[in-house]
Amino acid sequence: MKKIFFKISFLVLTISLSAGNSIAQEKKIQDLDFLIGEWKVREDNKEENWWEKSTRTARYVLDSTYIELESKALSSKGKRRTYRWYIHYNSKAQQFEMVSMFSNWHKVERDILHWDSENRKLTVQNISDSNSNEYHERFGEISFDESFNKYVWKGENKYGDPREPSIWKYVEKGSRIK
Q1: Do residues 129 and 155 lie in contact, with contact meaning Cβ atoms separated by under 8 Å?
Q2: In what helix (H) or strand (E) does residue 98 lie, and over which residues does it extend?
Q3: Partner of 56 for a Cys bridge, out of 60, 71, 119, 120, CB 3.0 to 4.6 A?
Q4: How confident is the model at residue 102 (pLDDT cuts 50, 70, 90)?
């Protein structure tokens, strides 16, 4: 009788722990809650002797299924622009996806985001567009401090001729305003 009790207890414990792990690993848009707020941002491209300063506001939209990041920016060349990113968790593909729209760029960009909570690192990588005849590749890593009040985003965009692309390398630093 004791033997059966221990086997059943072990089985129940194993199933409970397995169910708990799968529930704990389920991703959702709120995993990126640390983005919500207002940020002061500066992007630099040393090779081009260019910078851009912006204020970025992140908030939940569409019944909290998306995070919208809206930036109002001024560049070192005196140009103003507005751009928006929309981040969503695609449960079917099991990945975070981002759509980018820029007032000074003619096309909408799509990216996959990988969140590494242990290292506080968000990786941005574009999704290739088979319908486009333009080559564009984007990759970047955003590293957050322990308090999630500052970050550094190092990345690059490649575009133009895929054999000899133009490369836009940048470093963006952000600090939470509120």
Answers
A1: no
A2: strand 95-102
A3: 71
A4: confident
